[in-house]
Protein: Glutamine--fructose-6-phosphate aminotransferase [isomerizing]
Amino acid sequence: MCGIVGAIAQRNVAKILLEGLSRLEYRGYDSSGVAINNEVGVRAHRAVGKVQALKDKFESAPLDGKMGIAHTRWATHGKPTEENAHPHFSGDDLALVHNGIIENHETLRRNLIELGYEFRSQTDTEVIVHLIHNALKTEPDLLQAVKNALKHLHGAFAIAVTLNHENDRLIAARKGSPLVVGVGIEENFVASDQLALLHVTDQFIFLEEGDVVELTRDQITVFDANDQVQERPISVFNHHVDASDKGEFRHYMLKEIYEQPKVIAACLEGRISEDRVLTSSFGADSAFLKDVENIHIVACGTSYHAGMVAKYWIEELANIPCSVEVASEYRYRKVAVPKKSLFLTLSQSGETADTLAAMRMAKGLGYLTTLAICNVPSSTLVRESDLTLLTRAGTEIGVASTKAFTTQLTALLITSIAIAAEKGELSDDKHTALVHALRSLPSYVDAAIKQDSAIKLVSEHFANKHNALFLGRGPMFPIALEGALKLKEISYIHAEAYPAGELKHGPLALVDETMPIITVAPNNQMLDKLKSNLQEVRARGGELFVFGAKETGFAQAEGIHYNEIPWVEEVLEPIVHTIPLQLLSYHVAVVKGTDVDQPRNLAKSVTVE
Ligand code: AGP
Structure:
């Protein structure tokens, strides 16, 4: 999704801004631009494609200056062209970058055209810069003009603004889209993501909803939504969790797959004792664990799949009803909330627009409490939820979520066990057995990763495939959905997932010799049922790829490719069986030569609706 970087310094900021944009590349974008403010005025370069194309422009026509704003654009209104790339200008003097969507842009555009403004792009963003320009006609102070203009906007925005002849201050604001201020020495910065500024500072101020900030070289003044000056706390970034280096790995995604044993161990740390899940993991206010009688889980994409697995755990272990819904649907319907319901959100980024909107809506619906299972401690979701359980996966750069998913599952299993125990649904022995299983989880995941070379060989069979079908039963169905999503995202192969028992109700019609069918087959009570479903596929010539546990009785045979996955306790099967599907998608994408870490059309953090 779009990214913002801004800087005001004693030194030339061009390199700082370009490096910031490179650090934002992982979020997904299709064009970029930089505006630099110097004695001559505000000058900009824009380019379609990778940030490297923008850097090339700076090579051939350098722009120097001590203040500037920069942007990576993920197209929403208007194609990815240079004209639509930010910064956008009003006249030659005023430049602006924007993340988010202005919902009333059509009305504003009509009004501004009547006032004589000419539009150079198809973007919703351009209305903001003209509105500020128009406000400057009656209010010459840039800060106040920005505040006045923002009052006309409906929708979500994070912006940074620079004006010619105002070389001493940069104005930025947020509502609905994240923005962070980077604090330096005689220089200050602003960005949509702190990762964009880690090369220049490790001190950050997270702006709140409705904040407007004035940055000078030695001062940061934050005005809240009521226009009151506020002292916001400074947080120091922990560099141990900076993941912006691929190390020995060819792609971030592979690095993140390999990090899973380590980050799952971090997720468990301090949350389980020798034989118990610790209720203190949820903070001082853990009474909800005992009181809860119903759970609504709301999330998007991969996080939604994690929620679907949790439904099986919660209903099985804690014996209370649990429903799971995608946030974009939940937020637009009337929801019936049974008494003592927990509202549980799942999000890697904590900035997903639909999940945030759903959580804000849920706050008015009488839930017992709102709990966020999230990977980013400084995110809006964490700050606005009543309770939080952090997944501690560290920064995830690959657009295709891997370690964020398995740590979400780990946190969800901790939560399910804690609720079951507090509600008296778990015997002591069962509680101990579950905790012992959890303790072994990092080593099981490590053993599954060791299948990497074997899975790489299998991936070659997908080089010329255009479709794939994933099958699973029970909690393996959401794992099949997640496997299909991974394959779609990074290899662009059309993939669908079904509960294996549904096959004969329709999708079997798709099966012929050209259709690969991928399934994860743990050795559990559903195995025989699954095997019958697979027979139905084989009988129609479908090529089977089975990732099965020991003693499932599968073997390599004509039309059957079999990879063995280590045995694990049944409750852990969804987590461990995710690994081969992640590795398969990764290697298929490499075979197909796609952009693994930044797949086309996708963004890491979906901050617009
Ligand atoms: C996963 O591979 C995706 N890139 C995507 O589905 C993601 O999980 C979804 O956008 C939700 O993001 P969040 O977890 O940051 O809320």
